[in-house]
Amino acid sequence: MAVGPGTLPDFFPVAGVRIGVASAGIKKPGRKDLVIFELAPGSRVAGIFTQNQFCAAPVVLSRRHLSEGEPRYLLINTGNANAGTGARGLQDAAECCRVLAEQAGVEAVQVLPFSTGVIGEPLPVSKIIQALPDALSTLAEDRWAEAARGIMTTDTRPKGASRQVRLGEHTVTISGISKGAGMIRPNMATMLGFIAMDASLTQEALQALASELGERSFNRITIDGDTSTNDACMLMASGQYGGPELGLDSPHLPALREALEAVYLELAHAIVRDGEGATKFITIDVKGAASQSEALDVAYTVAHSPLVKTALFASDPNWGRILAAVGRAGVKDLNLDRLEIYLGDVCLVRNGGRAEDYTEARGQAVMNEEDITIAIDLKRGDVRETVWTCDFSHDYVTINAEYRT
């Protein structure tokens, strides 16, 4: 169950980036569950990672390798998170990096590992190592769609985005994939996201874009309020587009940022649309806040309310649940007589109570839609923030109750 068509785009190949996909049989025999990204020499990589203090072994190792070397390979497995595995988990992740590096002819520090799946189980190192030659033998620029499928866990469909943007006399190609459907309130990014482009950027500019765009997209989605142990979102630049290197002061950077933001948002929204058991895509738009934290507190309180989310699943215009969530969001000295709450274009709350022109029929018409906006105007300042979420259905409970079976 998911919201919207969810079809993959026709991916533009990114020069200097090749992808290999193989089956290691980590959780299900025969399933493609191992993905390798190969980056051309001179490529740069930046990223953001989970802020969960119980972060997984591959997160620890990727952070370390990213700071110590020049990444050439990304190694991704699904079916096992290698989280909550202590010292052994670090050793296992390091061994996978070592073997891939040996087979690819690079240093182990040039391999970044990523894992997703069940927490607390030892990584099946031997299965991964046995599948590495197959993954390397299939390296090609046109395997984005297969890679999108290869990183899925409880996702019901693969997620991808692709764009091209003209920068002066040169065209930059951007392609990306993401995965995630549950355990998502990414306190940094998504569960896993990989975006590559053939532009050439300084490391400073690349990291600035990765941080800024991740904050405005993946850091504004939530399925259930749970931050994963394995979240990572990487931005790769191969430098193969033929144009000059771009820095923070480059006149072409705004156009590149705009194109990248479209990719980031598309990938982030795709996760919400495929939220576990989701039947509705919800935009929560809070404006008129006195600060960013205030706006986000209100937005996330509404987004995480089980009562709001179940009402959305039932298409029940029970607007009192939204009102209650706003009221308990912790905003000090909130003027109830000034704020307004809308469901789509229908005003629910005005002057401290139900809007005079609200009718159940108008509210019901909005609730029957798949894409719904809840807009809240606090009328306290000029800060605006948007968060995206989904409803809670019976299937969400079923999926997570049966996750390990």
Question: How would you describe this protein?
Answer:
There is one protein chain. The protein has 405 residues and is α+β, with helices and mostly antiparallel strands. The protein folds into 2 domains: 17-273, L-amino peptidase D-ALA esterase/amidase; 281-401, Roll (Ubiquitin-like (UB roll)). It contains 11 helices and 15 strands. The two termini are 19 Å apart.
Secondary structure topology:
Layout: E1 17-22, E2 34-39, E3 44-49, H1 57-68, E4 73-80, H2 86-104, E5 111-118, H3 125-137, H4 144-150, E6 159-167, E7 170-179, E8 192-197, H5 203-216, E9 232-237, H6 253-273, E10 281-289, H7 292-304, H8 306-313, H9 319-327, E11 340-343, E12 346-350, E13 353-354, H10 360-367, E14 371-377, E15 383-390, H11 394-401
Parallel strand pairs: 4-5, 8-9, 10-14
Antiparallel strand pairs: 1-2, 2-4, 3-9, 6-7, 7-8, 10-15, 11-12, 11-14, 12-13
Helix pairs in contact: 1-2, 2-3, 5-6
Key attributes of the depicted protein:
single chain, 405 residues, alpha+beta, L-amino peptidase D-ALA esterase/amidase, Ubiquitin-like (UB roll), 5-stranded mixed beta sheet, 11 helices, 25% strand, globular
CATH level-four homologous superfamily name of the largest domain:
L-amino peptidase D-ALA esterase/amidase
Average pLDDT taken over every residue? 94
Number of strands: 15
CATH topology of the largest domain: L-amino peptidase D-ALA esterase/amidase
Distance between the termini: 19 Å
Major sheet: arrangement of strands: 13-12-11-14-10-15
The secondary structure category is alpha+beta
Beta-strand content: 15-25%
Order of helices and strands: EEEHEHEHHEEEHEHEHHHEEEHEEH
Estimate the helix proportion, in percent.
Answer: 25-40%
Number of helical segments with 4 or more residues: 11
Number of domains: 2
Radius of gyration: 22 Å
Question: How many strands, what sense, and barrel or not for the largest sheet?
Answer: 6 strands, mixed
CATH class of the largest domain reads Alpha Beta
Low-confidence regions: none
- The shape is globular
